[in-house]
Amino acid sequence: MPPVNTPPETSSSRFVRACLRLPVDRTPVWFLRQAGRYMPEYMAVRKHHSLLDICRKPEIASEVTITAAEKLGVDAAIIFADLLLPFDPMGVGFEFVANEGPCVHEPIRTRQQIDALRTDRTADLGYVAEAIGKVAKHFAAPRPDGDVLGIIGFCGAPFTLASYMIEGGSSRNYIETKKIMYGDPGAWNALMEKLYTVLIEFAAQQVNAGADVIQIFDSWAGALSVADYNEYVLPITTRLVKAVQALGVPVIYFGVDTASLLPTMRTTGADVLGLDWRVPLDTGWKSLDYACAVQGNLDPIALFAPEDVLRRRVQEVLAAANNRNGHIFNLGHGIVPGTPVANVQRVVEWVKEFGTR
Description:
By secondary structure, this protein is α/β, with parallel strands linked by helices. Helices cover 45% and strands 12% of the residues. It has 15 helices and 9 strands.
């Protein structure tokens, strides 16, 4: 079924228009992990439901997504889900361990295990699309300022998901991942193909349910050299980006600690590149020849700063963007637990005040 979204170039969402570097009345703003453990409403839900329970129950996932977007007054809502959800239908068991993060029960280390991964059960992820549908319906009407809130779906990038599968969880050095990448290109390519097959179907489900934009998270791409990224990651990522765009929506491509990779990441053709806080926004955008939109890039820990410092940092990010079409205000990574909600709300207010064109 083809997507039923409004064509992006005629969208009444300032967020979608900014993704396409079209003129907007002011800089749009949203936050990575805007629904999360810093927010009392979310923690109240977590008292009764695990993270995966929330993800797999559309009525709850949509509720926490909507609550966060409305409480903060942002311009886009990103569906509450997790990068690793495609692992289940692929036959990779995992769980979240308190204070440790995701844990894969049997890490993928052999060609035999890769060949056994399934790609025919992506329909099992339909609960994410169902949650997106609920969020899209809730925000379908224009807001008082005439803007329509943007709806963001997302998936992990092949490299990042592969690294979780192979390492068994988070990693500092990605030794096992790179051993396969370097030592068994056939196995690596087979894994990339299987992930691509699942991810494009997963993205299509989300677009057909009402997602206006898909963000592809390559969280761990910063662990790669430019040469390794070019050889082992760029081809499959480019295919994924272009296949998602063919569904009729813009793509945001985001990684952490990727300043050295930005020009290469640009060759994927993504509409928007996420910038973390380690590179000044104007420096990062210039390295891209201003050829795509950018998202970012306030340091998430600046949200703990005194009000005058935080306001100055917000103004600095906006000044670095210099009112160019194609800037989406965000953090350089996600909101962390313990962040004062009032400070997040202040940032939204300041972006609306200082980001007017």
